[in-house]
Amino acid sequence: MLATAPADPVRGGRPRTAQAALAQSALQEELPVPESTPWVAAAVAALLAYLVGSLSFAVLVSRVMGLADPRTYGSGNPGATNVLRSGSKAAALLTLLLDGLKGWAPVWASARWGSNWGLADGALACVGLAAFLGHLFPVWFRFRGGKGVATAAGVMLAWVPPLGLLVVFTWVAVALTLRYSSLAAIVAALAAPLGYGWLDGLWWEARLPIAAAMVAMVALLLWRHAGNIQRLLAGQESRIGERSRAAKSSPPQRPG
Prior knowledge:
By secondary structure, the chain is mostly helical. It has one domain. 63% of the residues lie in helices and 0% in strands. The longest helix is centred in the middle third of the chain and has 25 residues, at 89-113. 41% of the residues are buried. Mean pLDDT is 84; it is low at 1-15, 26-34 and 251-256.
C-alpha cells in the first residue's frame, strides 16, 4: 500500500496534520500583503481636489449661457459677484452653487470613503486647501482664477458643517446690509477661525491640521482682496447689483 504524503502548505493544498496547518498559517502571515499608503492616498486625493477646484464655473457657465467672459468686464474676477454684473441672476446663482460644490465635494468624499485608505484630519485639510488653491490658480485656465470665497465656504462646510453655515450666514448678513460683496467676504473670512475655536473647542483642543489649513485659506482670501480693501477705504468699491457696461454691450468672448 502506497503512503499518501501530506499536502504541501506552500502550494495551498489541504494540510493533513495540525502541524502542517500551523506551518501553512505561519507562511501565509509572512507573505507581504499590499496596503494603500496613507500618504499616497492623500496625495492622490489632493491632486484630484485641485483639478476639480480648477474648474472655473464663472467662465464655463457664462459660455454655456451665451454671456461675456467674466474676465473681460467689471472687476475681471471669475466669480459669482462679477457674473452678476452681466445682468444674469441665474448665471450668478449657478456659479455660486457650483463654486461652493467643488470645495465641498472633494472633502466630503475623502471623509466618507477615505478611512479605507487611512485618510485622517491631515489629509482632509490638504484636500480642502488643494480645492481652494485650484480655484485661485486653475490649471485649466492658465492659472487665472477667482478669489475663492464660495469655494472656501464649501470646504469649511465639509470640514465642520456648523462653521460653514456660520460663514455663509455672516457673508449673507453683511452683503444684504451693506451691499458690498468684498466686505462681506472679508468679514466672513475673519469670522471663520474665531467661529472654529468656538464651535470645535479651544484652539489647543481643536483639530490642528484643519485649523492650520483654515488660517492659510483666510490669509490667501485677504491677500486676494487687497485691491478691494484699498477701494473700500477710498470709497470706490462697487456694490452688489451694479451692472457692468462692458458686460451689457460685449458679446461672449474667449480671451486668448
